[in-house]
Amino acid sequence: MSCEYRIDSLRRLVITTASGNVSLEEIAAHQRRLENDPEFSPAFDQLLDCRSATNINVTAEDAREIAERKLFSRSSKRALVASIPVVFGIGRMLQAYNELSPNGSVPAVFYDMKVALQWLKRTELSSLLAA
Q: Domains in the chain and their CATH numbers?
C-alpha cells in the first residue's frame, strides 16, 4: 500500500519501492512527486523494487496511460523486480506498453534483484538491496 522513492544523484538512479496492494492513484501520485522533485532528472535510470508488492491494481488501459506518460528519457533504463507472478505479469504488461510508446524508456522485468542490477550496470548496490 505504498510507493516510495529515493534519488541517488551520484549514481543517476531513482530507486522506487512498492509494497502491498499498489493502486493506480499511488502510482500517479508517485510520478507527480518524482516529476516535481528538484533532484530528479529524466535522464536518470530507475530501479522499481516491487518484491514486497502483493498486487498492482491497474487495468490494461491504465498500464497504457502509465507507459505513455513522459517522465524518463528514451535512453533511461528502468528495471522492475518482482517476487510473485501477478506482479511480474503486470510488470511485463507495463514493459510492452512502454516499448510501444513514443515516450517510452528502456524497460525490463526481473525476478532476481542481482540480475536487474547487472542489467542496470549497478552491481555495487547488490549488498544494499539484498533480499
A: 2-125 (3.30.750.24)
